[in-house]
């Protein structure tokens, strides 16, 4: 595998999934605290109160990151740690935590990439309508300004919103994620307000700190239609592609929403888009973050599918008979590494204005833990990562402007509605003891990075 010489390798996490220390040091309640405390929402009623106790163990975790040899670490800021009730009242201890984290990363030579919003909204803001209410745009912008003032002297690269599609459609459409609302109008409003929030925050951030680079992390997919001669399915694909792949990308790059999907949203969208909004939305990305896990298969919706939009056709990575194609991961997500190559080449072709792509998440859930010799033999994750990295390398060789890859995740963590039973880490976490064990996939990733660096050094030497 050959990567460009200045290619960066990283690992990704998010605040609610790893930090723990839920209610100490003044952290406010987030929508995920509330959601997790609601029976029937999260598997086994688990929550992020303790998680990986990263809030207390961050120095050791940064040691681990160092040991993996990565260049960069993507984490998120817990909004309710900084502003416990949204609004403007700061919690200094929250700011201090991220100061320590960032300083420690830099001391170890690891570049920080901060995500502003990875799903843990202060509950007080949701009580006022959350992403479905227009006031969230200025609330989010104020939060972005405060974070920039505090940290942009040391953090250059920022993701404003992680996976706005999930925020919108899982949070307000199907309700399988916090805040758990099932209201298509609210979801369509959220689709617009997240797009606006990115644009408004980006402008404000650059005014204070012109050197910052901002991007969105979009969960993008390559759609496979079961029968391409079926017009209904192909129309459905156009709508779903507009809803998931194109919505925030066309919005930020060109200041417009995909025509067919916007038409399908109809009055629900028209009611929330005010004059001048599309100028706010239009805010070209400095880099596009792509979170890729698998291709999605479009078949006609089944009667038992929960309708959110388009007659129930969610881009679930499942065939219309409800089974996941083989092979698949512990999430039931099919393993489709070439889909990542196809997606990157599509971005190069369809959005030539995107000049920098980072894979901000890629990884797989498999359950393996330490064996009798203490090592974690997670060969399927080794293979998953290797095949997807091969696709990245191939796309780079074929001209896709890709500069970085972040594995999801540094360590096993709270996997949202699935609780702790799905493990995505390249480091194993024993939740009883909080012991971390680098899995074989972690060592394989470390070796791949080391080989890349060695080959770059050889090149430099041969040119000298
Ligand atoms: C993504 C999320 C991330 C993680 C992975 C498995 O949708 O951004 O937090 O849960 O899925």
What can you tell me about this protein's structure?
- With 464 residues, this protein is of the alpha/beta class.
- It has one domain (8-463): Glycosidases (TIM Barrel).
- It has 16 helices and 12 strands.
- The protein has helices at residues 15-18, 31-36, 54-68, 79-82, 92-107, 123-127, 136-151, 164-173, 184-208, 231-254, 259-265, 267-270, 277-281, 337-350, 379-397, 440-463, and strands at 8-12, 72-76, 111-117, 157-162, 213-219, 223-225, 287-291, 296-298, 357-361, 402-408, 427-430, 435-438.
- It has an 8-stranded parallel beta barrel, surrounded by 6 helices. A two-stranded parallel sheet has the order 6-8.
- Strand 9, helix 15 (379-397) and strand 10 form a beta-alpha-beta unit.
- Helix 10 packs across helix 11.
- It is globular and about 60 Å long.
- Residues 311-315 have low confidence and may be disordered.
- Bound molecules: beta-D-fucopyranose.
- Beta-D-fucopyranose is lined by residues 14, 17, 162-163, 166, 219, 291, 361, 408, 415-416, 424.
Q: Helix segment count?
A: 16
Rg, Å, rounded: 21 Å
The tally of beta strands, per DSSP, is 12
Distance between the termini: 24 Å
Number of domains: 1
CATH topology: TIM Barrel
Q: Which percent range fits the helix content?
A: 40-55%
- Note the run of SSEs as H and E: EHHHEHHEHHEHHEEHHHHEEHEHEEEH
CATH superfamily: Glycosidases
- What would you call the structural class? alpha/beta
Which CATH architecture?
Answer: Alpha-Beta Barrel
List the strand order in the largest sheet.
1-2-3-4-5-7-9-10
Main sheet characteristics: 8 strands, parallel, barrel
């Amino acid at each position: 595998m050959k990567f460009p010489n200045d290619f960066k390798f990283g690992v990704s996490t998010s605040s609610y999934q790893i930090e723990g220390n839920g209610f100490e040091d003044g952290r406010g309640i987030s929508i995920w605290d509330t959601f997790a405390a609601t029976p029937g929402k999260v598997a086994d009623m688990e929550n992020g109160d303790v998680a990986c106790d990263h809030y207390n163990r961050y120095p050791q975790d940064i040691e681990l990151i160092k040991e993996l040899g990565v260049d960069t670490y993507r984490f998120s800021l817990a909004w309710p740690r900084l502003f416990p009730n949204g609004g403007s009242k700061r919690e200094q201890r929250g700011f201090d935590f991220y100061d320590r984290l960032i300083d420690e990363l830099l001391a170890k030579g690891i570049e920080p990439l901060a995500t502003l919003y990875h799903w843990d909204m202060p509950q007080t803001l949701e009580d006022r309508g959350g992403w479905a209410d227009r006031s969230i745009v200025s609330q989010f912008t104020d939060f972005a300004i405060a974070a920039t003032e505090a940290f942009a002297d040391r953090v250059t690269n920022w993701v404003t919103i992680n996976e706005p599609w999930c925020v919108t459609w899982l949070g307000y459409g199907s309700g399988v994620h916090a805040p758990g609302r099932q209201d298509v109008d609210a979801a369509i409003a959220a689709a617009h307000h997240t797009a606006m929030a990115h644009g408004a925050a980006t402008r404000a951030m650059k005014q204070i700190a012109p050197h910052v680079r901002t991007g969105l992390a979009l969960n993008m997919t390559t759609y496979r239609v079961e029968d391409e001669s079926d017009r209904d399915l192909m129309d459905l694909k156009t709508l779903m592609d507009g809803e998931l792949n194109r919505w925030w990308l066309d919005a930020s790059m060109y200041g417009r929403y995909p025509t067919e999907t916007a038409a399908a949203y109809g009055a629900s969208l028209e009611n929330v888009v005010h004059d001048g909004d599309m100028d706010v939305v239009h805010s070209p990305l400095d880099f596009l973050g792509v979170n890729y896990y698998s291709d999605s298969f479009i078949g006609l919706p089944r009667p038992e599918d929960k309708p959110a939009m388009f007659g129930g056709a969610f881009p679930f990575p499942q065939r219309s008979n409800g089974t996941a194609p083989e092979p698949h991961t512990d999430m039931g997500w099919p393993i489709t590494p070439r889909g990542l190559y196809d997606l990157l080449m599509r971005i190069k072709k369809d959005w030539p204005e995107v000049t920098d792509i980072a894979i901000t998440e890629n990884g797989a859930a498999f359950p393996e833990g330490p064996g009798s010799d203490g090592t974690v033999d997670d060969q399927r994750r080794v293979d998953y990562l290797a095949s997807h990295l091969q696709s990245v390398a191939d796309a780079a060789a074929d001209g896709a402007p890709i500069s970085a890859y972040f594995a999801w995740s540094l360590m096993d963590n709270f996997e949202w509605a699935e609780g702790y039973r799905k493990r995505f880490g390249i480091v194993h976490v024993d939740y009883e003891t909080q012991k971390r064990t680098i899995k074989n996939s972690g060592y394989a990733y470390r070796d791949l990075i080391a080989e890349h660096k060695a080959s770059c050094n050889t090149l430099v030497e041969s040119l000298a």
